[in-house]
Amino acid sequence: MGDAFIRHIELLGYEKRFFPSQHYVYMFLVKWNDLSEKLVYRRFTEIYEFHKALKEMFPIESGDINMESRIIPHLPAPKWFDGQRSTQNRQGTLAEYCYALVNLPHKISRCLHVVNFFKVRPDDMNPVTDSQIKKPEVFLLPKDAKKNSTDITGPIVLQTYRAIADYEKSSTSEMALKVGDMVDVVEKSESGWWFCQLKNKRGWVPAAYLEPMDGPDESEEQEPNYAGEPYVVQKSYTAVEEDELTLTEGDTVEVIHKLLDGWWVIRKDETTGYYPSMYLQKGGEVNASVKSELRNRSAPPRRSTIRNAKSIHKQGRKQISQETYRRNSKKYIQSRRNRRENFQNKANVIIEKKEQEEDKPKAQPAVPPRPSKDLILTRCTESTRRKIL
Question: Is the model's pTM score more than 0.70?
């Protein structure tokens, strides 16, 4: 594999920390060319120093020689005192800066200065903390916030979930769990992989291994939608369990129930079953990087496959049986067919009526009676009178 480079940088939000003194750090999810995803924390003063050094390395692209040649994005200087308001208001600008940075020519976006700045540091993995100091406050930037700083959440009390079984991580971007571990969820992905933190550790965890503290989590899931949403299969999968489906890349399906563990119930023709959501893409959406990203990624485990799960709740999750999915799905398909047939029948009736009306002979106008000889002699011209004489 060639040199490492960054594919995407996503600003997740910022943290307000209280050790060794109160300060703010921005949270970035950095996605690398080897498909790994790392969470790093940077102060704005660090980012600005990085920005100044980048401009010095590329004077033409920074506009120092000719402003019309500038392609390196602008970044405002830090204030003498950066408080929470300025930290919050700067997020939109910083998110745009990171997007523009990654999309610069490769000689800039993939240079060692950029790569080294966003590499994981020891303090990213094990930030300095003190048990006597207040826990950091997390302020997340919603995905749809864009430039509107008023939409930024905060402070956020992250949701706490409990591990119901031991989990051994299979990559460096994941985090191992022991039954009973209490984790804070930073990001919930539809793929069934959630980004969590446990004390000083952070990483991706299968949602199937987590349960909320206040009760079963089926209330967080959407209700089944038997009308179905059109999706396209981006990666083939061979069923392992009886209630799963085997599909090939390019197949079109309908998603009828999106579940938190990343295994969605889909319909192919009249057959329903589970399929990994991370291998699906919504119909009509174009994402060229999806196929390459999926080659080395595996689907998260399903809840039904977890052995020795130990829940703290007396009442378990209310799971819908696959037979119920099939029955309700068939009912919907049949009702849709009936509606289509009724509509078609009505359309046929209208067409037949029009055809019948067209086939009927049209009424001919009445022929007026021929005028009498006396009337012609008294009212017509000389030439007409000569013809009857």
Answer: no
